[in-house]
Amino acid sequence: MPREETGLVRSLTLADTTALVVGTVIGTGVFLKTAVMAQEVGSPGLVLAAWVTAGLLSLAGALTYAELGAMLPHAGGEYVYLRRSYGEATAFAFGWMRFFVAGSGSIAILGTGFAIFLSAFVPLTGVWAESRFTLLGQPIDWQLGAKQVVAVAVIALLSAVNCLAVAFGG
Fold it and tell me: For position 1, what pLDDT does the model report?
């Protein structure tokens, strides 16, 4: 019986990878932070300058990753780069930080952004519980209401769709 080769399927197209990069770089930050930035700096020119600067830094990061990917063409991305540069412990710690903090945080802000934008069309004003407390010297306003339920529901729905797509090869 012939042995079947296993490995990563390289099936992402240029459009797929471009959408991933644009979604990662832009994300909801453009929509959620621009008003706050304008209020803080008080000038449209300074807001645009900040975006141009951030764009140049993102381009430098993208070119760096392109070079690293060419030098170390192995599955694992940042984990591989850190393991090669700083050793197993650093790469291991980064992997778990990425899983618990960065990954879950970015998913949470996407769900939150969806709920905020949906509330412009559908009233999501109900708040069932709220509290104010201090964490590390910073005041935190916590609440549970319709927006939070929508955010969690959309995260659960998209997670289920993703799991089904992985399970059934979609």
Answer: 57
Rg of the Cα atoms in the chain? 20
Task: Write the CB contacts of 119 (distance below 8 Å, at least 6 apart in sequence).
Answer: 125, 147
Angle, helix 104-118 to helix 29-41, in steps of 10 degrees: 80
CB 107 within 8 A of CB 155: yes
Q: Convert the pLDDT of each residue in 88-124 to its tens digit.
A: 999 999 999 988 888 888 888 889 888 988 999 999 8
DSSP, residue by residue, 33-74: HHHHHHHHH--HHHHHHHHHHHHHHHHHHHHHHHHHHHH--S
Answer yes or no: are the C-beta atoms of 65 and 73 closer than 8 Å.
Answer: no
The residue type found at 110 is L
| Element holding 5 (H helix, E strand) | none
Domain borders along the chain are 13-71, 89-170
CB–CB of 41/47 below 8 Å? yes
pLDDT, position 106: 82
Q: pLDDT band at 139, cuts 50/70/90?
A: very high
CB 119 within 8 A of CB 147: yes
